[in-house]
Predict the structure of PhoX family phosphatase.
Amino acid sequence: MADSTIQKPGAAFDDSENYGSNPSGNRRFSDVLSAVSSSRRHVLRGGLLGAAAGFLAPSMAHAHKGRKDDDDRRGKGHGRRDKLIDFEDVTIAQATADQSMPTISSDYEYQAFIPWGTPIEPGVVAEYAGDPSTRPTPEEAALQVGIGHDGMHFFPERSAHHKYGKGSSCHKGMLAVNHEYGGNQHVLGKPSPTSLTDVRLMQNVMGVSVIAIEKRYRSWEVVASPNTRRITANTPMAFSGPVAGSEYLDNPAGNIPLGTINNCGSGATPWGTYLTCEENFNGYFGTNNPAWSPSASQARYGFAAGGFGYDWHSFDKRFDLGDEDYANECNRFGWIVEIDPYDATQMPVKRTALGRFKHEAIAIGECRNGRIAAYMGDDQADDYCYRYVSDKSWKQAIADGESPLDHGTLYVARFNSDFTGEWLELSIDNPALAGHFASQAELLVNTRLAADIVGATPMDRPEWTTVARDGSVFWTLTNNSGRTAPNAANPQAPNSDGHIIRTKDTDDFLGDSFTWEIFLLASSTRGTPGVFTDPDAAFVDPEGRLFIGTDGGQPDGLQDQVVVLDTSEDDPKPRRLLVGVRNDELTGWAHTPDYRTAFVNVQHPGDGNPALTSFPAPFNGTTIPRDATLIITRKDNGVVGS
């Protein structure tokens, strides 16, 4: 995801992720693609298309009970649709007419919901409504919805007869929302913090909101719940897995682990918990100590004295890279954090077996034997695609008092030129890693370095992953400004438009190999009505509709958008469902169990500049714009995307 606190000359849409920190020299994906056929697409090999019927993303496993007729799936009384995607597209002219507010297909409507500053429960604190003359206090921010809305998931109200939170309510539940970041100017009204109080405000608007919501009549409302909470950069955290209790997390200061930051994409587990992903954690650290220089590990993760300009280190020693008392504080970030949305008494847990890198998102599929496979991207130019496989079925692990996310094997991907690939094991049992790490804990803290050593394939910013009902995994590769050599599969140098890859694991999705294809080159949409670039957020529903949210400068005067593609098509044509406001990003797609209500986030509208938009308020040029969630429904009560 973008981080607008980073400014580089002449790079209006540039992100830190576009600049790689990978010196490994591993064979680049552009080189792999240069070696293959000039065909834009390749059919997946090995007869896998029908082999994956038992491999379901968790939200699909309980929501999809076989293929009923169209009327049952799309609402009684509504005629059969011959097309999987059949809505009126937003035209470029419509989308560019007024970019101070979102533009949605005429077949849909939306409700702007829980903008930054909304009380997490009715009456617990006043709302911050975008008054430019003031900002919330840190104490108020800790009881308000944060900023930088990103990944999210809707957890339906738990039914008594459902064991793992797979309730069927489509009108009431817990909404977990990530808060990735907010710029100093946007949050503080000034370019840099000048006190610890300012830093605490910045820290309290980030993290995660878990809030109870309910549909009453035609609108959704925030309601009271004992499980409502904010999780911020100062919330106590637990660690689990191989790194827990290791020397790599200890500080001489003896401070307890606190906080989660730069919460980007997300995922959900089959047992009903939320997974939030720490991405650009390095940017919150810095130092004023001229004697400090990064270690090899810190350099590989992009730590620098200036950070991203947040300047937390000047007032909060935890984030000072030059303070030896907090030497391992930076190792406490870069993980995936598990949160129980149904029980606010449970401490969030950082699951270290999933590796430490710039986690964009995570998608979990359940295999036929009950084990889980989790797919994760490391969002930086020339970094890698990862998979984790649990040792046991998730139900057995929980029955044994274990977490399926603590006991398993982490792998990194190598893509071959014959449309096959290998999952390379990242453990001290791998002979290729012998002698490089003293323990699995040290390896996982330095996951990127281990992946470099085994020869993983550097990719074009792997971001979101999503698992289709047939077992396909879609990976969004947003762009890579460092690409230098064009080829038939990636004709632009640099790769400013990005692309989407589809993979399938072999051997019941648990083997060490996979097949792959280029599903879509975003550059191929230029000059078409459905043009889009910079694919980022991704979700595929049980019917095979792939929802893509974009993050970058869109062509033809468009702002970031949501497009929908039919994954069964050989030449998928993007259909434009939604376009955002000036300088925003659209991200964090989620659904109710019946797929008739969808949630998507408008992140950093106007980059916080009221001269560009006052969203979600009507444009007036003065009200501070606020990140918010859009709740989307079809006007005919049909499935969203249909």
Observations:
- Confidence is low (pLDDT under 50) at residues 2-14, 35-80, 487-491.
